[in-house]
Specification:
The protein is mostly helical and 173 residues long. The protein folds into two domains: 1-54, no CATH class; 76-173. It is 80% helix and 0% strand. The chain contains nine helices and no strands. It is globular, with a radius of gyration of 17 Å. The N and C termini lie far apart (44 Å).
Length: 173
């Protein structure tokens, strides 16, 4: 992966959005391996590239903010995570739409953050907003398409559904 990154940097330039994608892939790999110290600089550099090349209000910049915030939640550095999630959510709601499926990514992150901080009322508030977006999009997606497409769509929301159930079973019976 590092070799692919080096090739992309040389051929596209160090600030190209595709370089940011390679950095995110490396960061995710290290994060999945639990090596957060190695993941953090890759997430930060990817964010910097996206802010510079795409702009600070771009939806992909928001996704990079979410990724870095998730890392900080894993590190239990909630003070760093929350403003990143909040900024990502604001970007997504402004540049996409409050009902866009990508908004759920930030809302879920904020839910997990507040669950980790045992701030259950806030976690439920964010979870409720995420669930409303999912339900809206569920109605739209189940109204059209083949059975196979409908099943594929349902698979995309299983993680969010699991989180909602966990929140209520563990913290808010």
């Amino acid at each position: 992966m590092r070799r692919a990154l080096t090739i992309r940097e040389k051929s596209l330039g160090p600030d190209h959005p595709d370089v940011a994608l390679s950095l995110l892939n490396l960061a995710t790999l290290y994060s999945d391996l639990g090596d957060y110290a190695k993941a953090e600089p890759f997430y930060q550099r990817a964010l910097a590239i996206r802010e510079k090349s795409l702009g600070p209000e771009h939806p992909l910049t928001a996704r990079s903010l979410d990724n870095l915030a998730i890392l900080y939640v894993a590190l239990r550095d909630y003070a760093k995570a929350e403003p990143l999630f909040q900024r990502a959510l604001a970007i997504q709601e402004k540049s996409l739409d409050p009902g866009h499926p990508d908004v759920v990514y930030s809302l879920d992150g904020l839910t997990r953050l507040h669950m980790a901080k045992t701030e259950i009322a806030q976690a439920i508030a964010y979870q409720s907003r995420a669930t409303a977006v999912v339900e809206r999009n569920l109605k739209l997606n189940l109204a059209i398409g083949s059975e196979r497409q409908k099943l594929a769509y349902l698979a995309t929301i299983s993680k969010q559904t699991d989180q909602a159930i966990s929140l209520h079973l563990l913290y808010a019976r």
